[in-house]
Amino acid sequence: MPWFAAALPVIPGKEDDARKRGEGFRKHLDEYVRLNEGARLKRHLEFLQESPMGSMTITLYEFDGDGSKLGRAFTSSEYDTWWLGHVKDVHGVDLGQPFTPPKLSLVHEWKAPGVS
Fold it and tell me: Which pLDDT value is given to residue 4?
């Protein structure tokens, strides 16, 4: 299964908002599920990592396929309005503007014997 991973810094003081991200997904559950199914998403994990250097959210997506359908144009739907506002408020990133994601490089992988 292909994976996508991203880490975004959390604006200081916004850690509780990051912790409540799942509540937002549940509030918009029908649209969230529809979008995930359309992107052939198998799993979506969100972590909040807190450290003396600052907090980050770590997001992992597991796909059934190549994951190319995850990237899509945002609409004026209630879900997209919430999501764009949440990311801007918690991370300071405006996904409605051109955005170059940080470079991600795999530095280590281990698989149990027999795992493909």
Answer: 85
Q: Is 97 exposed, middle or buried (0-12, 13-18, 19+ CB in 10 A)?
A: exposed
In sign, the C-alpha dihedral spanning 55, 32, 95, 102 is: positive
Q: What is the CATH number of domain 3-91?
A: 3.30.70
- Cα gap 80→27, rounded to integer Å: 12
pLDDT one-digit tens code per residue, 21-70:
999 999 999 999 998 888 888 999 999 999 999 999 999 999 887 777 77
Domain boundaries, the chain: 3-91
CA-to-CA separations, 86 to 29, 52, 79, 91, 95, in angstroms, rounded: 16, 24, 10, 8, 10
Indicate the pTM of the whole model: 0.83
